[in-house]
Design goal:
Blueprint lengths: L2 H26 L21 H26 L3 H26 L11 H11 L3 H29 L3 H44 L1
Helix pairs in contact: 2-3, 2-4, 2-5, 3-6, 5-6
């Protein structure tokens, strides 16, 4: 065999070996259907379950209740509103801590700050004062707690994750109590407003 023929054979064998290694690596590499062509996660792999979605929304809502409660506790025009605001800080801070433990144990990261929507609501409240503040805060709390009670009832009765479902069940009575409290405050505000209107009308007719 000539020198040139021998060198060519060596090159061919080397190329075959490289191709074999590449093929073997490709066959043995794990196939991740959740990865896209750019190496990122497909959106489908990031989809949360209904329980996880509930937990994340509850965590964000809890943060908002605490922040708005702080504003109400310091800016409320009436004792009732200030006291209710402090109650929101106390109760929702406790619930947030419990929910954080639950979701963290499942590898989830709860929100650490308000999103744009809830931050805007806090800023709106912060810009009000006196009776205007009380009226807006009470309206927000009535609407929020009606929504929260419905969502927590749904999770408590139909949740699939035992831990998140248990959190919803244990927190629901507190939310129901909050709703009753804020509805009473709202009713009193409406009665006072109605009374003032009657007085104004009586004075106008004299």
């Amino acid at each position: 065999m000539s020198k040139n023929t021998f060198s060519g054979a060596v090159l061919i064998l080397g190329a075959c070996a490289v191709l074999a290694l590449v093929a073997t690596a490709g066959a043995s590499a794990p196939q991740n259907s959740n990865m896209n062509a750019n190496g990122g996660m497909n959106h489908g792999s990031m989809k949360m379950t209904a329980d996880q979605k509930f937990a994340m929304e509850a965590a964000m809502g809890g943060l908002a209740e605490v922040e708005m409660g702080k504003v109400a506790a310091s800016k409320g025009a009436s004792d009732e509103v200030r006291q209710f605001g402090q109650r929101m800080v106390d109760d929702h801070s406790k619930a947030n801590e419990e929910l954080t433990r639950v979701v963290s144990s499942k590898g989830m990261t709860p929100p650490a700050a308000l999103d744009a929507k809830h931050q805007a609501a806090v800023q709106k409240l912060s810009g009000l004062s006196g009776e205007k503040f009380d009226k807006e805060y009470v309206k927000m709390m009535v609407d929020d707690h009606k929504k929260d009670v419905g969502e927590f009832q749904k999770e408590a009765s139909g949740g699939k994750d035992a831990d998140i479902k248990a959190f919803a069940s244990s927190t629901l009575p507190t939310l129901q109590e909050h709703l009753q409290m804020i509805q009473r405050i709202n009713d009193k505000m409406m009665m006072r407003k109605s009374g003032n209107l009657k007085s104004t009308n009586a004075n106008a007719n004299m």
